[in-house]
């Protein structure tokens, strides 16, 4: 895909959002809530949890507007897409106060046979996160799977 | 970096395991993750919509379970020590499910001037079925310095 088709979003890493996200995944590690504890653990400020970037994945396709219900609606019903997983590389810490630019590009789709027959189509979005110093922080591959089953088939 | 709070490379053996059982999944937990993450796909919070889409009821986002998995990995290996984390979703997670996150060290080695470990990861429900399978690579501090 050409560069001009990339979606780009710049966001600030906020302490309150980190605390909200950590609570939502049941992670009570004090480094996510207390700057002193984060510094004692070697971070310059409160770090983002490992999957915190998801917050921006939901915004980026809407140009930074508030998230809206997605077009792909998951479920076992035939012909629908579902979330396949992620492959995440961590290159630098992501810290409260960082101003991060996320660039998202679509990869070429590929097909595989499903475990229960039928064809599965895998779509991979590659998201690169760069901080305010121009350092690459993370690379996230977001994998979506769609099935070729006919509607109604389980 | 300051004093590490997590495992030292010397203290990890291949085959060492760690696990974390989470409280039962509730609709409230799902909605809370929707708000925190911005994942407002109605199949996760609108019961009538979920049923119309052929589901028995609402189900949790895969990334909620993956967040639990990242919690296990962070507590065990140190959230600042992760180098790679990959995972695939294997089955749907429903309200009432009790998820346990599990990790097993597969390999200790040196690479890129770091002391690293690879671990296999799994999130399973109360019936032992995999909701997620995955793998993590972390660079651990050493006592030798």
Q: How would you portray this structure in words?
A:
- The complex is a heterodimer of chains A (154) and B (145).
- Chain A has three helices and six strands, in the order βαααβββββ.
- Chain A is of the alpha+beta class and 154 residues long.
- In chain A, strands 1, 2, 3, 4, 5 and 6 form a six-stranded antiparallel sheet that branches.
- In chain A, β4 (110-113) and β5 (119-130) form a beta hairpin.
- Chain A is elongated.
- The model of chain B has no long low-confidence stretch (mean pLDDT 93).
- Chain B has helices at residues 27-37, 47-52, 62-77, and strands at residues 17-21, 82-89, 100-111, 114-124, 130-140.
- Chain B has 145 residues and is an alpha+beta fold.
- Chain B has one domain: Roll (Thiol Ester Dehydrase, Chain A), CATH 3.10.129.10.
- Helix content of chain B is 23%, strand content 32%.
- A five-stranded antiparallel sheet of chain B has the order 1-3-4-5-2, with helices on one face.
- Chains A and B meet through α1, α3 and β2 of A and α1, α3 and β2 of B.
